Amino acid sequence: MPDNSPSVKVSAVRDTYGAEVRFCKPTQEAREAMSAAVVAELRAKHGEERAEEIHPNQDVRVVNGQGSVAMELLEQQPDLDALVVSIGGGGLIGGVATYAKSVNSKIKIIGAEPECAKSAFMSKKAGHLVTNPPNAVIDTIADSVKSSLGPTTYPLVRDLVDDVFTASEQEIEDATKFMMERAKQVVEPGCGLAVAVATSGQLYQRYPDLRKVGVVLCGGNVDLENLPWCRKRKADATAQPPGKATKV
After folding, report:
1. Which parts of the sequence belong to the Tryptophan synthase beta chain-like PALP domain (predicted)?
2. Quick one: 46 and 120 in the same domain?
């Protein structure tokens, strides 16, 4: 895991599920290098057949499994005009788009990315795979979507995703907070990203006929002690001179 992963995510994997967690630098290259090193170590210790690397977004089995999200959603609401899905490595939207387009070729599949990590947006614009800068530390509150598209997911995004929109950090934060306050849904900023795009004027300016829009909600990376607005409050309190109270 990246060494800046949300503490709730680390705790769930290590303390609840009993896994060994090894930390690496928060770049895609560092994660891939550590994963390969762990697989090699386990194979050397236990045998070649005892360790397999399963990529979180480029393994076809993972992408296929994530397509079940669209299956369940469209079984409950079959007349949607569009689905908005956040994009990191593209596994989720790849699976969703594959299933949704197979049952309704007219449904719009809309991707959502942070402005500071927009591999899919740039790839759609360029007409070929464009990744985030190598060895770059992606600074976004949307922790779950820092990855780039890869060789498995780029063709799916190219062929099946109709459009990709980006959102600023403030828009992601506002949408995440809106979902918690108004919809009473505990969602992670990676989900707030999709909500930001689904509620944006730019989406409906480009696609004015959209009426029923589904959004994939997720909350696995919510660190309640480190939400963006909590961080700001702590920073403001720290910045106050001694004896001065922070106005809330």
Report:
1. 1-219
2. no
